[in-house]
Amino acid sequence: MTDTPAARGRLYVVGTPIGNLADLSERAREALAGADVIAAEDTRRTRGLLLHIRAETPLIAYHEHNERERVAELLDKLARGATVALVSDAGTPLISDPGWRLVRAARAAGIDVVPIPGPSAVIAALCAAGIATDRFAFEGFLPRRAAARVERLRQLAAEPRTLVFFESVHRLPETLDALVEQLGPDRPAALARELTKVHEQIVSAPLGELRARLDGDIPLLGEFVIVVAGAPGEAPPDERRAREIYELLSSEIEPSKALKLTAAITGLSRNDLYRLTRT
Q1: Around 208, how many Cα atoms within 13 Å sit in the side-chain half-sphere?
Q2: Which of 15, 18, 82, 123 is within CB 3.0–4.6 Å of 77 for a Cys-Cys bond?
């Protein structure tokens, strides 16, 4: 019998707590309890979450080592009308975790994919770091090999956006060493440890200071997120020249005339010039 779109199931991508179980949303609770099967990165951790919400939904392991075969298996279930919930170890699925191949395959097959937003260590760390959040780049885990790690950081050294990294407790010291070496000890940063858990700790300080405090008042325990300020930007050459011209003219004539003459000389609008001269 040929499947019809109406007979197809639905794939829920469910955000789960990163530590504090009280952060599980009501929508997430309903999706996990009502699914026909939950595709979980770590079935042991997800089973504990199900015990907490008193649900008995069947679990199937879905991780980077079995992803290829599981995609085909889950896609078949979805095509037959099953409801599948996808979860990671903790937080929002697909963020530095497997799952995008299943989502891509489901969408290509015409199956509804429904995101159920939830906690994210990336967003939690950014919110509390005290570093610019209007533009950021999530880099996940840096390469394990030292040479590859250094090369990646060299590529990121001039990145103006805020950078966010995940790191394991065992590799944190060498990663901070590399960050200090490649981005400089004075680059503003924050280290977030055990987010939403009992021993949550968020320390904002330059990279060099964070490295010095590691294993002191910042224990080498738990899971870490590193937030690093983007590279300080310089004004484009045309803007620098316009500012210089305005400053020179305004020292001799009234500011409004200096602004008008600077606009005529540089071709920049008076509004742009006003902004530049007020920053």
Answers
A1: 7
A2: 82
